[in-house]
UniProtKB/TrEMBL annotation:
Protein name (record): Cytoplasmic protein
InterPro entries (UniProt xref): RmlC-like_jellyroll (IPR014710), RmlC_Cupin_sf (IPR011051)
Residue runs in coiled coils: none
SUPFAM superfamilies given in the database record: RmlC-like cupins
Keyword Signal: yes
Keywords in alphabetical order: Signal
Organism for this UniProt entry: Acidovorax soli
Amino acid sequence: MIRIVLGLVFALQVAGAGAQNAVATDGDKYKVILENPCVRVLDYRDQPGDKTHQHHHPGFVLYALSAFERMLTLPDGKVLRRSFKAGDVMWSDAQTHIGENIGTTPTHVVIVEMKSAPVAGSGACVVR
């Protein structure tokens, strides 16, 4: 059983190994505002026409502080278009993409990336 779990953890790490950390690829846009064993909270800002480098996010919650329009290009070439209003909230599973502000307004969001699951009653987190 331990071997199966370790194998799955290794496989997940290898699968994400080629994807870059958003703060490392686009530090001019992403700022870490909190990090602990459970989550990493990012403040993201960009201007119309700005585009990110390809990067990866683990599962995350996004909270829009401004209205904006965005295009995401996935590694397989699939293109997603998203529109947000201030106050919109969304969940996303882990994702690798290139993001581009295709609207006429700046983007401002807070992103809460999941790092691990809380241990019931302990206040601590364990790696998923």
